[in-house]
Amino acid sequence: MKTRIYSIFLLLTFAVTSIASAQSQGYDSHKTFDPTFLNNPGTQYRSGSGAPGPAYWQNEADYQIHVKLDPEQSRISATDQINYTNNSPDPLPYVWLQLDQNIFSKNGKSRSMRGNASSNGKEYGYDITSVTVKQNGKTVKADYRIAGTRMQIKLPETLKAKGGKVQMNIEYAYNVSPRFLRTGRMESKDGPMFSIAQWYPRMCVYDDVRGWNTLPYLGSGEFYLEYGNFDYYVTVPWDMIVVGSGELQNPKDVLTQEEQQRLDKARNSDETVSIIKADEVGDKDMRPKHSGTLTWHFNIQNARDIAWSASKAYIWDAARINLPSGRKALAMSAYPKESMGKNMWNRATQYVKKTLEYNSKQWFEYPWDTAVCTVEPGGGMEYPGIVFVAWKDSGARLWNVITHEYGHNWYPMTVGSQERRYAWMDEGFNTFIDILSTQNFNNGEWGNYAPWVTDPEKLADNMEEENDPIMTRPDASDEVGLIGYNKPGLGLYILRQYILGPDRFDYAFRKYTHDWAFKHPTPKDFFRTMNNASGENLNWFWKEWFYTTWTLDQSVEDVHYKNQNPSDGAYITIKNNNQMVMPATVKVWESNGHSGTKDLPVEIWQRGGTWTFQYNSTSKIDSVKIDPNNQLPDVKLSNNTWKPMGQ
Ligand SMILES: [Zn+2]
Known about the structure:
Distance between the termini: 51 Å
Bound molecules: zinc ion
Strand order of the largest sheet: 5-4-8-2-1-14-18-16
């Protein structure tokens, strides 16, 4: 998700500059190089190496959903069939479901956190009319209770461990919120646009770490979801176009011959092909029938969620995506006329295509066959195979949001982390991969994705002891922009560019992505994988960067010459003043024009905060600078450079 991160961050940058430079913490090497950190043994579920263990399991949730949209009433009614398999070693007497749509309801915790949906007299949140459970061939009315955005179903018979199956059928309806929070309704001049998400009751994750993950949906923390197969049918008035997660199964029923031919052409074209052109919006000839409703059938396999969007206002574009294995997928965008213009949505399909092609090559092949980009009012939001992006964005902002939301199709849509607890495992990882995908796009057309991330000085201005640590749950922090996106994004960037180098970093990050694709990694699985695959014990870095708010202050303290003679060599003393450590790079300039650089590993700080090394000088030293390329978030730059007394 992306909501006004830019402006929030810029405000912070200017507000805290003076405070950050005033602090000094001192340094205790035992705290940073903590022998107790990450030293618990691996389990049969999660190996010490960070890979899934030999007995790793996860449960499966498959869905068949029939949904009808009434645009006049702005109301959705649906039947949701969930086929749930308990692969865990534990018998389950009850199951928990997520009712995210209840965030708009007037009852429950979410309202006190986020405010009510609307004061127009309508009720929002799920209106559930029937819940049944089918187990061992018998169907009974379910014994259930609702707690805000959660529902517990007490099963008639305990669900057996290691393969027990249960089917739940839920009939429900709800009024689509006029206030857009990751889902809702917008108005364009050619008709309303419905972007529909968090729209069906779905399983909470039961895992080996915490059992049932039942944290409520309060608005900031996103979603932790089981993988499974989705088959869904969206019924809308005949004149609406529907795009959604997964592949359209019945083009012959819902598209004209002309539209089907254009789609076939797009499947073989690297250039964008129009399926519905701007001047065809609202044209009856573009619809296969002219009254009643049409049902659009979609299917997506091995996904963790589905969303869809419907409007009669949509222009529809598509182009082929070329994947590393030779497989082809289809990039698409659906948007109203208002989204057209210079560097606006006419380019969206190409942005989707290029993002998917780059990330597939760099990290892991995009697993699904279609990828569509459609509209929302302000920021952006991600789902498997579909993203919602601000419909009036243009220029760098439009590229940034599309590449960001589609970056989420790797983290967390493919690598299914616990987003509600750890925003950094999707937003931070994604911020990092967006930097690379933006550098790669069209010879860097849109510049630097995250100047506030890749310029460590800017981040240093925001790093204070009073911040929340990255590990803070997003619902428990006012600093989600910093701790969810920017600090973890910069952390990975420093790890790649400065600490490990791209080769070692990329191998380890790909290993994590492959090992945990379609699974549920924890932070420690990530840390252990990076340690193992890079061969470097990075525990000092994980601890300081992710668990604490320590700051970095490296300095050059002293230079003196061997035998008081500069041509015999020099002893240079550097210091680590605060609790965070980093490897040290020191550059030396001599009066005879020579210069040289010394790279010192992080291990120099294991025995204390001061380090003296020999430098083979040949003449008097004019200046010495630590972190000469400004790669680190040093909070006090004034002590980074040494010059002889009097200069
Ligand atoms: Zn995001």
